[in-house]
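The authors assume throughout that readers already know how a fold can be written as discrete tokens. A single example would do more here than another paragraph of explanation. An entry of this sort, consisting of the sequence and the corresponding backbone structure tokens, reads as follows:
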Amino acid sequence: MLLILAHRHDIAARELAARWNGDVILLTPADLHTERLLLTVSQRGRARAELRSRPSVTAVLSRLGGVGPADLDHVDPQDLAYAATELDAFLRAWLLAWPGPVVNRPTATCLNGPGWRPEQWSLAAAAAGLSVRPAHRLVATAGTSRSRLAPDRAVAACAEPNGDPARVTVVGDRCFGPVPGDLGRRLCALARMAGCTLIEAIVDACGTVLHAGAWPDVSAPDVADALLPFLDGAS
């Protein structure tokens, strides 16, 4: 059985669970207080994670960026911030120690992959040989109101005809979306650099990456079918 960890409003995760039917269970952070998650650390510092209440679970799909107070409406409001911080930290350690497949494994900053900012994704994409759109961020210094900050210059749009951006999903070494093979291979390389099995990118008609992240639409049939072998441990 497979476990999907997701926020309560993650429609794609719920559609994926419905598609996989009886082979999956979906749990939100608010559900976890009724489960028996166990994290054991040996004297040698080796950690092992178990889900005692669901012993048939063999793999985990993480759709949680982190756990915040809004995820735990069953907790006393006075304890919300503390409880969310504790659960977030516990889940990060638990997922890192899980002995089976985890997509995507957490990092120190996110429960799903690296938790990179747009600038970090752009930097990694460029390192993978991809063309990227320049990232611009305006920061108001002390005493400077936002209204006094001049708007940045617009980035030139792709001049290709019929240049609607394409949404592309990478699952391991497979790329799903209307992009040429070389571009798909570079996007797969980006996923490896991010330490992710699963990422998405939005690419314009010139092959420029406009956006990249670890939150694709997992409910798409071809993506769901490609993802299943990774969680089954076959890839």
User: Anything to note?
Assistant: The first strand starts at residue 2 and ends at 6. The chain has two domains: 2-103, 118-142+158-213.
